[in-house]
Every structure is written in C-alpha cells, then in structure tokens.
Design brief:
Layout: H1 2-24, H2 29-73, H3 79-100, H4 107-130, H5 137-157, H6 161-182, H7 185-206, H8 211-231, H9 239-263, H10 270-290, H11 296-316, H12 319-324, H13 327-347, H14 350-371, H15 374-391, H16 393-402, H17 413-427, H18 443-468, H19 478-499, H20 509-530, H21 533-553, H22 557-563
C-alpha cells in the first residue's frame, strides 16, 4: 500500500512540473543558457561574416573601377568612351542600391552600394574637367547636379541616410574643387543653391537631423564667395551674380519656411530662425555691395523686403497662428520687424524711415495690449531704438547729455517725432505679464522707460542749452551747461520715482536710483571741474532735493508686496 502511494505522489509531482513548464512556456535554465550562448555566438559569427562579405564586395567594386581606368590609360579604350563607361559602371551600383533598399534584410548592402557609387562618380567628374579636359565648368555643374539629384532621390525613396549625407558632403566638396579648377563659379553656385534646397526638404521629409544645416552652410558660403571673387580681376564673376543669388537664397528659404509652417503645420525651429537671419543679412549685404553699380538694385531690395515683411506680419497675425500661440508667431513677427527696419532703411531717407518706424512702434504697442503679447511690447521697444538710430536722436542725445559744447547739435523733425512716439508708447497699455516670460515680462517696458528718459532729456538739454548756457554763441558757459544737465537728470529721477507708484509703470523704480548714481558721477567729473560757486550750489541742491524726493515717492518694499 505504501509503495502504491509513493508511485502516485511521484506521478503527481511529474504532472505538476509539466504544468509549470507549460504555463511558463520556457525551457529549463540550463537549456535557456545554452540557447542564449549559441545565439550570441551565431550572431557574432554572422556579423563578422557579413562585414567581411561587404568589405570584399567594396574592394571588388573599386578594383573594377581601377581596371576601367587602367584600360583607358593604356588606350585600349579612347578617353571619350572610358569616362562614360566609368560613370555608367558607377550608376549600376546606384541602381542596385535602389533595388536592394526595398528589402529590409538587404538595406546594409544597399547603403554600401549607394555610397560606393557616390565615391566613384564624383572623382570621375573632377578628372573629366581637370585631367582629361572633356567637360567645361558649366557642363560639369550640370553633370554634378544630375548625379546628386539621382543619388539623393535614391536616398530619400529608400530611406538611406548615409547615402544622403555622403552625397551632400561630397557634392559640396566637389563644387569647391571644380570652382578652383574650372573657374565657373556662377554655374557651380547653382549646384550649391539646389543642394541647400534639397537638403532642407529632405530634412522635412525624412527627419534626418542636421542635414539642413550642412546644405545651408554650403549655399550661404557660396553666395559670399561669389561676392569675394567678383572683386578679383582674374575671376570672371560679375557682382550682379552675388546680388541675384542672394535674393534667390533669401526667397527660396523664406518661402520654404512658409510652406513648412502654414501648409504642413510645423512650427519654425532654431534652424529656421538662424537661416532666416543669415539669408536676410546676405541678401541685404549683396544689395549694398552692388549699389555702387546702380541704386536701382537697392530700391528693388527695399521693395522686396517690405513685401516680405507684409507677408510675414500677415502670417504672424493669421487666425491659425494667433490661436496656436506657438513659435510661428514669434518667428514671423520678428522676421517682419527686421525686414521692415532693413527695407525702410534701404528704400527711404533715414529721417522718413525713422518716422515710419516710430509710427509702427506705436501700432505694435497698441497691439501688444490688445492681444496680450509681451513679444509685441519688446518689438515696440526695438522699433523705437531703430528709429532713434535712423534719425540720429540717440547720437544727438549723447552729445547733449555728455558731449562738449563745440558743434552743438540741432533737432530735426524726425528726432522730435521719435521722442514723442517714445512718450506715447509709455501711455499705451501694453502686455506686462506672461507665464512664458515670467519676471522678464516687464523688461520691454523698462527699456522703453530708459529710452524715453534718454531721448526726451537729451532733447530738453538740446533746446535749453543755447538760451541758458550760450552753447550756440561765441562764449559758451560749461558750468551752466553742467548745471542744466544735472537739473534735467535729477528731474528725470524724481519723475521715475513718482511714475513707479502707478500700476502702469512699476518698472520705473528700477531706474530712479541708477539715474541718481549717474548724476552723482557727473557731479564729480563735470560739475566740480567746470562749475563756479553759484552753479555748484544749484547743482548740489538739485541732487540733494532729488535724493529726498526719490526716497519719499519710491514705493516701499512692503507696499509693493501688498500690491502683488
């Protein structure tokens, strides 16, 4: 009976073990370890075998290319036939890359064949120009462009990133070699432009990061190189080539960014911002470069810039851009502002441009409050600064507040309008709070306050100094001029302290004491050396009174905390 029970227990234990094995669906530990070791060993052997196979194929392919070269060198084939046969031989491997790229387990071989094809064709093109003299510069540019288009097409269709990168890198290098060898810089610049355009849209199509930077670097350098080569007489390059290529570069990239953002629904990134700035700078630089030939080219550039600016602002304020509140608004609004500044400076007299920029600053201030965008408040400030530079208001203010009495500046209408616009922008409610900007949301208003104090204070000194200090006459009084400047700056500090008590200008509190410090430094270096007892008395009284009033009117920290 006991033996029977032992047998039953043994059978039950066996069944239990089998059930556990079926539930886990795993072999015993020893079997798992053995299978893993065998798999790793097999994979290692397979990797080494595949690498050796691919390397052997590459060597055989290059060996075949050198065989064709040897047959041509020994004149078994004429040169006119050897070069086309060599190119056809390389294109066979590009075709095989296209064929093999359609099969997942043959993609490594496809990438190798595509790279080998690139490495075979491009040196043949260089030698066809430099050694065999079969191709001219323009014809070599066409051949290079056709091959790069074919190789990039295969890379995109079969998602062969290595082939795409090598084609762009080798294409850029080949262009530089052919420019030096053939002198056809204008024809080969077209290849750079198309490579840049292709690399951009390949990045958009396949998300190959970094390729667009390489293409843009090549075409940017190519346009600049055209301008440099046009200076030297040994190069047959017209300055107009740089101009037209600059405009083409500018238009191609800006239009591509528009299609990407508003037709495909992708926000601009770092590349778009950097390349838009570089392309604009190159285009404007090319226009300035050819302005010595005819001012018409500057006019065309200015009109084009203003048209692009109108389009950029239209895209920035389009309903889909405003509702998304993404990077597209910042990109296109900033681009529009830059193009307006550049286009107006190129197209209009500086005084008229300053007036136009001042009016635009007032408009952006109004839009900032209406749409609650701190970015527009910042643009308002930048436009005021640009208007001040264009009108000469900032330079004249510097002379009025810190310059010598000689050659006293006069006020132009455009400078007065810039000062008035700066004050008007302070009274227009702008956006001063934003979760995205945080504490930096008040920075544009702070700069606008400083600009207003600077411009308006300088204009007051400019107007009053001829009457109170005789700076426009034969006997100017430096002491009186120093006291007048002290009075204006001290009054500005008091006005800033009073303004900081209002919710509209809380940033003014950050400027009151810096202005007083400036006045104190000025007392030491200007008032005391140039003043007399009477003027020094007035200057010290003004500064002392300003210190008392600023301390009285400036909001205390506890009051500011209660407001917030």
């Amino acid at each position: 009976m006991g033996d029977r029970l032992d047998q039953i227990e043994a059978r039950l234990a066996t069944i239990e073990r089998r059930l556990r094995a079926l539930e886990s669906n795993r072999p015993p530990p020893s079997e798992v370890q053995t299978a893993t070791e065998m798999t790793v060993e097999a994979l290692g052997d397979e990797s080494v075998s595949n690498a050796a196979t691919h390397l052997g194929r590459v060597l055989l392919i290059f060996g075949g290319a050198y065989l064709l070269r040897a047959i041509t060198d020994f004149e078994f084939l004429p040169t006119q036939a050897g070069i086309p046969i060599g190119i056809a031989y390389a294109l066979i491997w590009l075709y095989l890359a296209y064929r093999f790229g359609a099969t997942e387990n043959r993609r490594t071989g496809a990438a190798i064949y595509g790279c080998v094809s690139v490495l075979l064709v491009l040196p043949i093109l260089v030698e066809a120009v430099t050694h065999f003299k079969l191709l001219t510069g323009p014809s070599s540019a066409v051949a290079l462009l056709v091959f790069c288009a074919m190789a990039l097409g295969v890379a995109v269709l079969r998602d062969l990133r290595s082939v795409g990168w090598l084609t762009v890198v080798a294409g850029l290098g080949t262009v530089l070699v052919l420019v030096r060898a053939s002198g056809a810089a204008t024809s080969l610049a077209q290849v750079l432009l198309l490579l840049g355009f292709a690399s951009l849209w390949i990045r958009y199509r396949r998300e190959w990061k970094g390729l667009q930077w390489l293409g843009a670097l090549g075409v940017d350098f190519g346009v600049v190189l055209l301008g440099v080569l046009s200076i030297h007489e040994q190069w047959d390059v017209s300055p107009l080539a740089c101009y037209f290529f600059g405009i083409a570069l500018w238009a191609v990239y800006l239009l591509s960014f528009v299609v990407r953002s508003h037709l495909q629904g992708h926000d601009p990134g770092v590349f778009e911002a950097v390349q838009a700035a570089l392309a604009s700078a190159i285009a404007f630089g090319a226009a300035i470069f050819v302005a010595r030939i005819s001012p018409v080219y500057m006019i065309v550039m200015g009109v084009a810039a203003l048209l692009f600016a109108a389009v950029a602002y239209g895209l920035a304020f389009a309903p889909q851009t405003r509702s998304a509140r993404g990077r597209s608004f910042y990109f296109y609004s900033t681009l529009g502002m830059v193009l307006v500044v550049g286009g107006s400076a190129v197209l209009l007299p500086l005084g008229v441009a300053a007036i136009a920029l001042s009016m635009l600053a007032v408009a952006t201030a109004w839009l900032s409050g209406r749409q609650e965008r701190v970015a527009l408040s910042l643009q308002c400030t930048l436009l005021l600064i640009a208007a001040g530079v264009a009108s000469g208001a900032l330079e004249n203010t510097l002379h009025a507040l810190a310059g010598a009495v000689d050659d006293w500046p006069s006020l132009a209408v455009s400078q007065l309008i810039v000062g008035a616009a700066a004050v008007v922008c302070l009274f227009i409610p702008v956006a001063q709070r934003s979760d995205r900007w945080g504490r930096m949301a008040g920075l544009p208003q702070l700069v606008a306050l400083a600009l207003s104090v600077w411009v308006v204070g300088g204009q007051m000194v400019t107007v009053l100094a001829p009457f109170l200090a005789g700076v426009a006459g034969d006997t100017p009084d430096p002491g009186k001029l120093a006291t007048l400047r002290t009075a204006v700056l001290a009054a500005a500090a008091v006005v800033l302290a009073i303004s900081s008590r209002y919710k509209r200008w809380p940033e003014a509190r950050w400027l009151a004491y810096p202005v007083l410090v400036t006045v104190g430094v000025k007392l030491v270096f200007e008032d005391f050396p140039n003043g007399r007892p009477a003027t020094l008395f007035m200057g010290l009284a003004l500064v002392g009174g300003a210190l008392i009033l600023v301390a009285k009117f400036l909001p205390k920290r506890s009051a500011r905390r209660a407001e917030t």
